[in-house]
Amino acid sequence: QVQLVESGGGLVQAGDSLRLSCAGSGGAFSRSLMGWFRQAPGKEREFVAAITWTAGTTSYSDSVKGRFTISRDNVKNTVYLQMNSLKPEDTAVYYCAAAAKFFTTITLEYEYWGQGTQVTVSS
Asked: In this structure, are residues 47 and 61 in contact, taking their beta carbons and an 8 Å threshold?
């Protein structure tokens, strides 16, 4: 079965960096698109970044563009989210997800999800 496991979250100060990892198994990356989403308390889950597994084409939400970088390691079947210049508003549970789409930012179109990892940024 498909399984996605996130790791790398934690408590950091504003301006710090953090790298999240998402390890896939059970053919998780046979899906064409991998994405990162986040959900803060009292808010809807929102799109953060995505990458196509084969070509490595990336996309980002306006709120993280220039600060976050998504990448993948085909050998390790792992997708990463490098987060730099973190802000308190980046505080959220971050989720890794997979979709059988060319490109989408819509939560419901991602069919597999990890359990989430907490990222807390203090000021």
From this structure: yes
The Cα–Cα gap between 37 and 95 comes to: 5
R_g over Cα of the chain: 13
The secondary structure of residue 53, as a DSSP letter, is T
Q: Are strands 92-99 and 78-83 parallel, antiparallel or unpaired?
A: unpaired
Token representation of residue 5: 């496991």
CA gap 86, 55 in Å, rounded: 28
pLDDT in tens, 26-85: 876 666 899 999 999 999 999 999 999 888 999 999 999 999 999 999 889 899 999 999
Name the helix (H) or strand (E) containing 4: strand 3-7
Pair of tokens at residue 69: 């970088």
Rounded-to-integer distance, Cα 107 and Cα 121, Å: 24
Strand locations in 40-106, DSSP E? Answer: 46-52, 58-60, 68-73, 78-83, 92-99
